[in-house]
Write a structure and sequence with these properties.
217 residues; alpha+beta; 4-stranded antiparallel beta sheet; 4 strands
């Protein structure tokens, strides 16, 4: 059954598509405000049984009722089938996230490299930095998540599916050495759940077209 928020989202997608006929909103030239055909609830349940988790209801409702990927923030929503790739630009079957282990962060995480050696000890510093990189870029830091969106520039957005931050959106921006942190790219100043995140993107995008004419969302 479609709840009121899902109904609002459908209306706003259609409204935004009508207003942005030239696809000026970032990423819209890729998805053109189209959602893919929904995924079956059986496929979702199969995934949940395999990894012994329960996906957030908001996300399940979206992908099984509205659509499986397509229109969405930045480069759009990722297909459910791709949700375990740790890098959406390079989807390697041997490099997957593990949603069966808890996501451990509750605060932004971005350690900086430090060394006990002086600058003159180049070889030792290189060894230390290699160790730091191995830890910093470990995909285990994104345990308990699924990947839902490609932000670009090596960053991705994740839905927490196991851990204290369950149901919230976090960003993995280690590719630009910005670490892992709660998603705030849409202007929210508090942790945000999946449907609120998606609707905020719609509201922000609609405001670009409605504000000059005094229209309302």
């Amino acid at each position: 059954m479609m709840n009121e928020q899902l109904k609002r989202i459908l209306v706003k997608i259609d409204q935004l598509k009508g207003l942005d006929s030239y696809f000026t909103v970032f990423g819209s030239q890729e998805h053109k405000y189209q959602l893919n055909h929904p995924v079956s609830i059986d496929k979702v349940h199969e995934f949940e049984r395999k990894y012994d988790i329960k996906l957030p209801r908001e996300y399940v409702d979206f992908v099984t009722i509205l659509g499986n990927g397509g229109a969405g923030p930045f480069y759009g929503l990722e297909l459910f089938e791709n949700c375990l790739f740790d890098d959406l630009n390079y989807k390697y079957e041997n490099s997957l996230l593990n949603p069966s282990k808890p996501f451990l962060f509750t605060e932004p995480w971005n350690p900086r490299f430090s060394t006990k050696f002086s600058k003159d000890n180049a070889e030792e510093n290189e060894i230390e930095y290699a160790k730091f990189e191995e830890i910093y870029y470990s995909k285990e830091h994104m345990n308990g998540t699924i990947t839902i969106c490609n932000y670009g520039c090596g960053a991705s957005l994740h839905l927490i599916v196991y851990g204290k931050e369950y149901g919230n959106i976090w960003t993995d921006d280690r590719g630009s050495e910005n670490g892992i942190y709660p998603s705030f790219e849409l202007g929210n100043n508090q942790n945000i759940s999946f449907l609120n995140w998606y609707e905020l993107w719609l509201d922000n995008s609609l405001q670009k077209f409605l504000a000059p004419t005094g229209g309302s969302i």
